[in-house]
């Protein structure tokens, strides 16, 4: 950022714990978003969890379905089903007035009662819901509703596009007013190989992180006060991680969305604060606990960049840190500039390095 002498939030934030671990560990660059794939958490977190997105990724909706605990047959296609507002053919609101969970769930129940049959509606959280359909419905293309706000609500195209458009039209009479559903982001039901760990857990509020955790065989831990926003309780995540280890877990994945949220808000101060909170409110206490209990390892890595100036995701390689309390590394500095000249590693190999075994193949049910 020019207004900060060309520095990034990662170097502006004071992160004494991570800096110390970096000095004693290995710092490198990783390509969590493979070339040609969209820079999103569905791709980036899949890579961080050790599965090559080029091999396994089939869209965002099936990941969210796993996160909701839906167990659907492999031949079903899952769609994101937003509750939206379309006025005079214009996408007025991609969140359909941002209904509270109860109102949204009632809308999904009404849709299932009136339009369910060949397709089925599944309640998610608020305006974000899912619909499952026969495999043939996958042959369609629709625009993401948040990308056409204030613009013409282009109906879906492709072979199954007319079925989608008809269903979206019929939903208007069920939901009333200018409210309707918007179907997009589809993919076939997804299976991923289990991570080769004995007792893995995942702590995170965001649906896509929880879904990928389920798909990888991790137990999802609910954390009171974890919101997926800048107001999240870092202490609650830290304490849940510590209790997971105390309970016998050999792998705990902690996802924090606050830095990404601050990036989308274009809020540099909030992003720096989120990084500092990572360090002081989450990592400091966790490292203290781990140092007392025995040898341990850490992988710290962003799933993708979120440029504060453009307020959008980037696919540029990200810096990562590997730390092993028993094996000192060459040491490095955790900063974009420090790793810019390195050849980035594919993101999915980092988990293999952390666990010391291949994480990208089938190892049994
Ligand atoms: Zn984001």
Quick structural overview:
By secondary structure, the chain is an alpha+beta fold.
Structural description of this entry:
With 365 residues, the chain is α+β, with helices and mostly antiparallel strands. It contains 13 helices and 14 strands. It has two domains: 2-58 and 191-355, Alkaline Phosphatase, subunit A; 66-188, Alpha-Beta Plaits (2-Layer Sandwich). The strands form four sheets. Strands 2, 3, 4, 5 and 6 form a five-stranded antiparallel beta sheet that branches. Strand 7, helix 8 and strand 8 form a beta-alpha-beta unit. Helix 9 runs parallel beside helix 11 and helix 10 runs antiparallel to helix 11 (268-293). It binds zinc ion (ZN). Zinc ion binds at residues 260, 264, 306, 313.
Number of domains: 2
Ligand catalogue? zinc ion
- Give the ordered list of helices and strands: HHEHHHEEHEEHEEHEHEHHEEEEHEH
Q: Percent of residues in beta strands?
A: 15-25%
Terminal Cα separation, in Å?
A: 47 Å
Can you identify the CATH superfamily of the largest domain?
Answer: Alkaline Phosphatase, subunit A
Name the CATH architecture of the largest domain.
3-Layer(aba) Sandwich
Helicity range of the residues?
25-40%
The secondary-structure class comes to alpha+beta
What's the CATH topology name of the largest domain? Alkaline Phosphatase, subunit A
Q: How confident overall, as mean pLDDT?
A: 93
Which sheet architecture does the biggest sheet show?
5 strands, antiparallel
Number of strands: 14
Whole-number radius of gyration?
21 Å
Shape: globular
- CATH hierarchy class name of the largest domain: Alpha Beta
Summed up, the helix count is 13
């Amino acid at each position: 950022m020019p207004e900060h002498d060309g520095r990034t939030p990662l170097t502006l934030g004071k992160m004494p714990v991570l800096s110390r671990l970096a000095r004693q560990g290995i710092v490198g660059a990783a390509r969590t978003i493979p070339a040609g794939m969209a820079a999103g958490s569905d791709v980036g977190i899949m890579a961080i969890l050790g599965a090559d997105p080029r091999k396994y990724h089939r869209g965002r909706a099936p990941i969210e379905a796993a996160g909701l605990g839906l167990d659907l047959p492999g031949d079903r296609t899952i769609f994101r089903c937003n509750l939206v507002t379309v006025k005079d053919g214009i996408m007025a609101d991609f969140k359909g007035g941002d209904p509270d969970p109860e109102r949204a769930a009632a809308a999904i129940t009404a849709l299932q009662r009136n339009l369910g049959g060949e397709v089925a509606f599944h309640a998610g959280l608020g305006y974000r819901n899912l619909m499952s359909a026969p495999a043939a419905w996958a042959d369609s293309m629709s625009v993401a509703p948040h990308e056409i706000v204030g613009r013409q609500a282009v109906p879906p195209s492709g072979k199954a596009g007319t079925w989608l458009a008809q269903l979206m039209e019929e939903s208007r009479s069920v939901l009333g007013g200018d409210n309707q559903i918007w179907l997009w982001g589809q993919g076939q039901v997804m299976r991923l190989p289990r991570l080769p760990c004995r007792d893995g857990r995942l702590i995170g509020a965001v649906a896509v992180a929880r879904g990928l955790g389920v798909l990888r065989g991790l137990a999802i831990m609910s954390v009171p006060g974890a919101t997926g926003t800048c107001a999240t309780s870092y202490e609650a995540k830290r304490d849940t991680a510590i209790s997971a280890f105390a309970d016998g877990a050999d792998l705990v994945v902690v996802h924090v969305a606050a830095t990404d949220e601050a990036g989308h808000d274009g809020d540099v101060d909030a992003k720096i604060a989120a990084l500092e909170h990572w360090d002081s409110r989450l990592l400091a206490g966790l490292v203290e606990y781990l140092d007392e209990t025995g040898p341990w390892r850490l992988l710290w890595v962003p799933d993708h960049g979120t440029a504060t100036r453009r307020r959008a995701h980037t696919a540029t390689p990200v810096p990562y840190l590997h730390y092993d309390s028993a094996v000192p590394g060459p040491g490095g500095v955790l900063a974009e500039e420090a790793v810019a000249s390195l050849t980035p590693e594919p993101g999915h190999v980092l988990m293999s390095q952390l666990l010391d075994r291949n994480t990208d193949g089938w190892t049994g049910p």
